[in-house]
Amino acid sequence: MMDTIFTNKSARKLLPIAASFAAVYGVSTPANAFTIGSLNPDSAPGIHANKAPYTVGITSADVGKTFSTYWILKGATTQPLKAKAYFKVTELTSSNLSLDTVLFNRTDDSFRAALTNLGLGVSPNANKVSFKSKGDVFKYAYVETGKQYFPGGYQDIDVCINTVKTGSKSNCAGGAVKDGLQAGDKDIFGLDIAGKYGNNPTVTLQTFPVKFHTSEGIYELSASKPREVPTPAATLGIIAFGAISAVSTLKRKSKSITE
User: Cα dist. 52→49, 55, 68, 214, 258 in Å?
Assistant: First the structure.
């Protein structure tokens, strides 16, 4: 199933990102990029105990590259909970990491299940986060202070991306199901994550927990193993094509109405 569910607003919003992908991937990318690793499995809580949370190591050589990850939980609810995300590194300096993100809620839309929170562990620690571009649903982001908890018992989560406004000491408390990214929908946003990343910048992102708020309960999941998108021009070209097609359709409809 292709992740190509477009709204009018999101289609227009995606065009500059799609253009960015096309510009970067006009040349071939090296085979080796992100360093995919894992943490001590004892740090995974609840239903993910003994499953090591994954890490993604990023260097300046990875600027322009994309990795993806996904979340899935079967058997706990009427329909399996599913989500997928693409993260494109657009900048890494000694003080800033920029990510363009496309987040899909791939749960069957016959079941009421919304994504309300996304967390990122960041090493070295993030000291500030802001939006380059806000999503239609995910509009709030902050750096956690204190113990940096995420719902479900996840620890060392520096950055919380949220659908409602909360505080930096809220342990990434999210909104209600009505506030979240609904089943079958997607959201697009860009982040700037500030920190002290060194003269030869290196950042490690970890765990990537999400929170599903459903009609049958609340569930927190860590991400499955991330991977570099092997053919970004082809994979993300699908997104670009979908955006362009949606805008073209809008133009045709607009023309027919005026005629």
Answer: 8, 9, 18, 25, 57
